[in-house]
Amino acid sequence: YYQLARYYHGQQRLSQAEDAYLKAIAADGRNVNALNALGSLYAERGELDRSVQTFEKAVVAAPAVASVHNNLGYAYHLQGRQDEAYAEVRKALNNA
To answer: What are the tens digits of pLDDT across the range 46-76?
Structure first.
């Protein structure tokens, strides 16, 4: 499902991509790639609360993955949560 979701996402078929990401996550709730990509999709659609929630799940699933902390930091930044954004970007740098 993750590969299918990436295909749909690349074609900007966002509803279909979301469905496939959710199926990938349902099959494996710790699928950090699917969580990270779904968080990006939500940010792309301007659904920042959903984006942050999804990136937070990704951080729990893979706390040592720098790109997940970076993406969560950026989502916090988009919400105007600068202190939290800075903290996540620092974690990303420490894990790089």
So the answer is: 999 999 999 999 999 999 999 999 999 999 9
**CB under 8 Å, gap of 24 or more: what pairs does 36-42 form?**
36/65, 36/67, 36/68, 36/71, 37/2, 37/5, 37/6, 37/9, 38/5, 39/71, 39/72, 39/75, 40/71, 41/9, 41/14, 41/17
User: Model pTM greater than 0.90?
Assistant: yes
Task: Give the other-Cβ count within 10 Å of 49's Cβ.
Answer: 10
Q: How far is CA 77 from CA 7, 21, 52, 80, 85, in A?
A: 28, 24, 10, 5, 5
Count other Cβ atoms within 10 Å, centred on residue 44. 13
Return d(Cα 30, Cα 71) in angstroms, integer: 17
Per-residue confidence band for 95, with pLDDT thresholds at 50, 70 and 90: confident
